[in-house]
TrEMBL record:
Gene3D superfamilies: alpha/beta hydrolase. The chain crosses the membrane at residues 12-30, 42-60, 75-94, 106-122. Keywords: Hydrolase, Membrane, Transmembrane, Transmembrane helix. It comes from Rhodococcus navarretei. The keyword Transmembrane applies. PANTHER family: DIACYLGLYCEROL ACYLTRANSFERASE_MYCOLYLTRANSFERASE AG85A, ENTEROCHELIN ESTERASE-RELATED. It holds the Pfam family Esterase. This is Alpha/beta hydrolase-fold protein. It comes from the Bacteria.
Amino acid sequence: MDWFDSLSLIDGPVPVIVSVLGALGGVWLVVSSSRRFSRRALPIAATVAIVVTAVGYVVVEKVWRPFPDPIATTIYVWIGVGLAALFVVVPRLFAARGIAGKSTTVAAAVLVVAAAALHVNLEFDAYPTVGNALGVESAARIQFSDVPAEVAQTVTGTPLDSVWTAPRDLQVAGRITSASIPATASNFSARDAEIYLPPAYFADPRPLLPVLVLLAGQPGAPEDWLNGGKLAETMDDFARDHAGLAPVVVVADGTGSSIANPLCVDSPLGNVDTYLSRDVPDWIDNALQVDRNRAHWAIGGLSYGGTCSIQMATNHPDIYPTFLDLSGQREPTLGDRDRTVQEAFGGNSAAFTAVNPLDLLKSRRYPDSAGIFVVGSDDKDYKPGQQEMYAAAKAAGMDVQYVEVPGGHSFAVWSEGLRRELPWLATRTGLMS
């Protein structure tokens, strides 16, 4: 079944086939010889779908506002299409003739919903393959209890590749595992972290590898970096070209749930700052045998995670002197400055300013920090903020770059951004010259 799991949901024949079948299913659902269905049931079902979608839009975008930025209108359109198929399927079943007609009706509704889901996925490229969408476990995954313990002999040096020779029996790919990182200092309710260990980590003597902490977006989860982010593939490709060497990657949870937005600060919404600046580094030091020199550590993230990465880099440059901001915002936000200050900082604007990266970059110098801002060339919402942050970071003395990648606000940009900038990260963190 590997061939099935590896089928692309982003390009190739599958999106075309599903779209065509969904269109045919839609035609079946709306065309019927029954006058009662055509004149009453179909208009009612369509109207209900439109109303429900519109109410959902108002609740999400105007009342609840769980996400800092509005969801694209096309997403709501496809949600409405899927709802319409579900609402019309019952009256269409009554209008259908015989078992064959009724079976075709159910199949048609499934195809329309599948096509709608596929097009929502195409907006973000979150699930590149069928296996990703079905949650198929990678063959490279191991239990954390099976991660080899510390070894007595280690290899150190800067750059590390200048003193490392891979053993002949070194495995060709890294391993993925997950672990709960205790929130000892922060008391933050974090989900399990996803961890990538490169081939060289399993060698004895073991090279002390640099660390990359990655953060997902919002809504999102750490495993997003393994699916749409193509983390394992990117790291394995790099390790294959560098004698098994690559950073140890810890994808930490920066939100606590899929839809929470704790702003990556310490506040009533959750002590994420302390979790990422104390609990996560302490756990890595104790649980993994890596390079503990913070000059060889980096942090990065996508969207919310990108914003969080520059927050960590400006508030804790001693821990994360290197960052990769992929499509981050110009500041942490709950939708607007007033709401953010009220809900997370008790109305204290000075408390917000004291931790806001843009304000810190205007008031402090960061001569030992470096980073890259990456954004999609078609990302009109986030590009201006990335350009502003880049200019502010450069003015504050950081060694920074601004990079545009073809695409919008999607995993196609973020996975490619990580792939492109991994050599720079490796050089910056002492892995290679």
